Amino acid sequence: MKRYSQVSVEIGEFSNLPFWKKTDSMDLVYVGYGLVIVSLVVVSYILGAFNLLPHDPQEINIDLLMVSPGNSGYLLGTDFMGRDILSRLIVGIQAYFLPGLLAITIALVFGTFLGVLAGLCGERIDMVITYIANLVDSFPRLVLILLMVAAFKPDIYYIMIIVGITNVPVVAALVKSKINFLKQKNFIEAATALGLSNRVIILKHILWYNCRSVLIIQATLGMAEAILMETSLSYLGFGVQEPTPSWGNMVQAGANYFMQGKFWSSTAPALAILFTIMGFHLLGDGLNNIFERKRNK
Amino acid sequence: MKRLQGILLLIFFVTFGIMVSQSEAARKKDGRPDGGTVKYGEFGRPTTLDSITSNDMISLRITELIFNGLVGIDQKQEIVPELAKRWEISDNGRTYTFSLRKDVTWHPREGEKPVPFTADDVIFTYDIMMHPKTITSLKVRYEFIESATKVDDYTVRFTLKRPILNALARFSFKIIPKHGPSNSNYLTRKDPFVHNPIGTGPYMLKDITADREVILVANDNYFKGRPHIDKFIAKPFADQNIMTQALMFNAINMIVLVNPRNIPEIQGDKRFVLQPYNALSYSFFAYNMRSRLLADKRVRKAFTYAVNRQEMLNAFFNGQGTLVSGPFAPGSWAYNLDVQSVPYSTKKALNLLKEAGFVRGANGIMEKDGEKLSLILKVPIEKESEAVKRVVLAFRSYLKKIGVDIKVEFKEWLSWKEDVFLKHNFDIIFASWVFDDSADISSLFHSSEIGPWKNNFGAYSNPNVDTLIVESKLTLDHEKRRTINRKLHAIIAEENPYTFLWTLTNYAAYNKKLRHVAIHPYKFFTFADEWFMPKGGRR
Amino acid sequence: MKLSSIRPIALLLSRELIVTALLLLGVSFVVFIILYLSPGDPFSALLNGQMAADNASSAGMSVAWYAQYLSWLGNILRGDLGSSLRTGLPVLNEVIRVGINTLYLTIGSMSITLIIAVPIALFSARRGMNVYNWTFTMFAYVVSALPVFWLGYIVIYVFMHKFGLFPLAFGFSGTKLSWLYFLLPVFVLGVGNGTMSEVVRYLREEIGRVFSEEYIRTALAKGGSIWKHSFKEGFLIPITEIIASKIPFILGGAVVVEQVFNWPGMGRMAWQAAQDRDYPIIMGIAILSAIFVRLGSLLQRVVYIMVNPRASRE
Predict the structure, then answer these.
(1) Chain C residue nearest residue B49, CA to CA
(2) Chain B residues touching residue A154 (CB < 8 angstroms)
(3) Residues in chain A whose Cβ is within 8 Å of chain B
(4) Which CATH class name applies to B280-504?
(5) Hey, which of A183, A247, C237, C273 has its CA 20 to 30 A from A150?
(6) Pick from B47, B238, B246: which is nearest to C166 by CB?
(7) Chain A: nearest CA to C29, how far in angstroms?
(8) How much is the pTM?
(9) What gap in Å lies between CA B127 and CA A38, rounded to an integer?
């Protein structure tokens, strides 16, 4: 981090340059924006958890269906059941929390494990793991999910397991390439020569010191993906089910009125998705660039 | 079992006054112009295109254009001759002898001469329909027939096991050609015929495009005279919002069933006609009597009191429908108009729950002997199911007010069906019955219909009701039957195995250029050969 | 190309073919396992003909899973994927028929993605960031984050209400603007498949990396064109790579876009099949889409080997 601040100071000297030329400070902007979004997500999670909401998100008001924003005390209007969109938006983030975490955990745990195996255990094992990764990559996610839905049942956790599994190859490849990089620099040989146990090398020196940034980035991207996937599935009818609000099923329900010119009830959750996912992506990319530059110095 | 908008349907058969007819159908000399294309939008694709193996509404509508029955139905709902030009019924009511038209030919296959329609085809259809290996939902409806025999090439005789009231109407089943299916014993969905059928009807299947449009063209040799419209095209849509937009922008010119949400949009547009047709159907919440909590009539009744049905009807369906009070098809002669629909009264609901021994527990949920009044409502998932979602969510919120906790569980169609009809693993369901036109509710409430894949899924059992149902079935006197059915209606309304909701008015929307549109409430295209488009106004 | 270099290329190619075949075998196995483990009994529905009959007659004798797999695999290799439970039509024909439509959509969308992403990547790699680049990059981020069906609704709405065009008249031959029907879903999927930002970033990095390589600098110093020299490694390879790796995403996005635009493709059929638990159909679609993906990778490997036979021998 120290070195990074030096970089930005150097760049600060060319402050007459327009800001998009200062790619490094752009990364900071990205990361800053991402962090704002992440904290907003956390804040709304807390608000929802403690029920600090303008309205009861489940309260149905048959007389006030599809009220436009700002009317009758509804800041963002109401949906097709007369429920407050703002409150549902805030509570809606909860729908992703545990399922998203599940997807991320699966991707990171299995991905790291396979990545380490592939990196350290020789060519044969590497070949097997590459084969498995290619196999998983052969299926379009949504098709695989539909197959699971047909074979088992439409359940957000099942779906997130698939999202997690399909992300395993990505994580494994990243970890593997890191390890190969370390191998090239004789890092691992040196560590073994120092008498460190394999466990310590792998857990502490490889994963903790060298892979954590990659893994954090993958985690943010995984969350973004979980949200988008749920949205698509909501459109298809297999996402989070009513009455539980999720951003995906809110966009879907509101989109039914889109063609009639009643935009708000799908726009609000769609923008929420947009800003959040952009936040996660930019955070991921920004962190990635910063770490990369740090390593290259 | 059929399906419509994710809701289950049940077909019963037309039961109407016997009418012996002798008139020959006239050639079309009505002076209306021929030509034009009707391109209508359907939400989804048909399963099969023949009348026997198909089991969905989309297919049913197409088969109505391709095939004919021995008898048909006219716009006054009366039975008229179709493939049979006249019939005789024996005095004991057990034999029906049909004399067939001699001027009917099957749609020709390409490069072939048209084959004439004969008695063999009728016998063939009956045999194939009743064959155990044939996959069809029709079989149970024709078990009342003992045998079918060919008297000569243009005469067939059906012998019934016992005389039944209004049997004639049931001979409207569609006749398929003997030379059609490749397997002459039974018909499954693997037979090429089911996707490429030929019939005797006003329209012939021309093609199914890569886009899955079903293209039907006018049958020049149709025995009632060539239909006016040249082409019917069924276009499948995967999104109902888009389907409505397709109508607005003339990509199609008819929608057979308009989503209630889109009615105001089409209503305001002068280019279109919004035509109501009353499907004999109603929606309901059904209770599972196997649940100890719901076995108590007072609890069920309390639920019905707690639900403001008129408010839902107004808010969600623009008031386009009527509340129903009992089990018979609304609008049918069996429906008892004297039974009032249960009014909305939270107070009465709470009193009934109190009477049944429930008290408010923690969280405001009613309890009895430590058992919470917490129930599972199972609903099938459909992509476009806003109306269903609304009703279900409103129901949940109404019941919350009287301290009942409802957990809504959405399941995809097939596992929902399994849960309801096979495993009986539910407390409450939301569904609809659609009747062809009937007074026969025996399969819904007779105790012998309790069991896997039977229609009395809620296990409702009342000896009194059983007796009345059997009596109603056996009687040959129309008036007597009516009296019995009125009694049944009253009892079932009181016992409340369902919370009867409403019958909705269905709307078809079509371009104004289409004229003389009469719609059959169930089969839809029955009178389509009479429709026309004036010259000049075609697209 | 010298004669001596041809043989290794043939060898490498045949190796790729074998890998592809092995992967497809794995694909069939994965599909089998999912269906085998499912609580319903889809398999008796899938194994038509003899196996099922044998199964039934040998009352109670359950057939081992590998025997089931092998007989099922045998059927598949003979092109017999069973028939749809819903319509009774043979799966192979059905799936191939819609698969072609999806292929059009996929290829078209891929081209759109590349047409938008490549210039952005090229110019930001060559000239560094400027305001246009930055705007386009941000645009790529925004569209990658939008729910694709909602984007579809916006596009349809705008076209109808602003331009008075209804872009969904597929099959309406004769209309002058019927080509719009093809263009819009292709555009929406190309823009909204969620990969745009990644494609831009990847290409920018790859191209940037190649630009800074020694031999390019040398070539530049000698007055050669940078585009000519960096074309193969800096352009062709990354692009084929990105195409191959993004095919599954586009196929996934197609499921949604096909619903919105009423495109008669695999995705729409897969949705219907999931709804009806029509196992044979969805299985066929999973296998066919995996074949598409694998063929894409195969193509990428072939290009890679042709361009750079020495590097690929490692």
Answers:
(1) C87
(2) 381, 410, 412
(3) 58-60, 62-63, 65, 80-81, 149, 153-154, 235-238, 241-243, 253, 255-260
(4) alpha beta
(5) A247
(6) B246
(7) 10
(8) 0.83
(9) 69
C86 found inside a domain: no
Whether residue A140 and residue C31 make contact (CB cut-off 8 A), yes or no, is no
Name, in order, each residue with C-beta under 8 angstroms of B251's C-beta and a sequence gap of 6 or more: B39, C166, C168, C169, C172
d(CA A287, CA B384): 41
What single-letter DSSP state applies at residue B88?
A: E
Task: For residues A175 and A169, give the distance between their C-alpha atoms in angstroms, rounded to a whole number.
Answer: 10
Verify whether the Cβ–Cβ distance C262 to B195 is below 8 Å.
Answer: no
Give me the residue label for tokens 């195995």. Answer: B497
Give percent above pLDDT 90 in chain A.
21
Instruction: Give the ipTM.
Output: 0.82
User: What mean pLDDT value characterizes chain A?
Assistant: 83
Query: Any idea what the CATH number is for the domain that residue C131 is in?
Result: 1.10.3720.10
Flag whether residue C178 sits within 8 Å of chain B, measured between CB atoms.
Answer: no
Tell me if A231 and C147 make a contact (CB, 8 A cut-off).
Answer: yes
pLDDT tens digit string along B293-307? 999 999 999 999 999
DSSP string, A159-187: HHHHHHHHHHHHHHHHHHHHHHHHHHTTH
Nearest residue on chain B to A240, alpha-carbon basis? B410
Q: Quick one: which of B284, B288, B252 has its CA closest to B271? A: B252
Q: Cβ of C189 under 8 Å from any chain A Cβ?
A: no
Please count the structural domains in chain C: 1
Residues spanned by the domain of C185 = 91-313
Per-residue pLDDT of chain C (314 residues; tens, 9 = 90+): 445 555 677 888 888 899 899 999 999 999 888 888 877 665 555 544 333 334 433 334 456 778 888 888 888 888 888 888 878 888 898 899 889 889 989 999 999 988 888 888 887 777 766 777 778 778 888 888 888 888 888 888 888 777 766 655 444 444 555 566 778 889 889 888 777 877 887 888 787 777 777 766 677 677 666 666 667 777 788 888 888 888 888 898 899 998 888 888 898 889 888 887 888 888 899 999 999 999 999 988 888 888 776 655 44
Residue C96 within a domain: yes
Q: What is the pLDDT of residues A111-149, one digit of tens each?
A: 999 999 998 888 889 999 999 999 998 999 899 999 888
> Which chains does chain C touch, 3 or more C-beta pairs < 8 A?
A, B
pLDDT at C63: 64
| B12 alpha carbon, distance to own chain's centre | 8
In a domain, C149, yes or no: yes
Question: If you measure CA to CA, which chain B residue comes closest to C276?
Answer: B414
- Residues 6 or more apart in contact with residue B528 via CB below 8 angstroms: B38, B64, B65, B202, B203, B227, B229, B232
Contacts of B195 in chain C (CB under 8 A): 87-89
Residue C289 counted as domain residue: yes
Distance, in Å, from the CA atom of B381 to the CA atom of B7, rounded to the nearest integer, reads 10
Which A residues, 94 through 123, put their C-beta within 8 Å of a C-beta on chain C? none
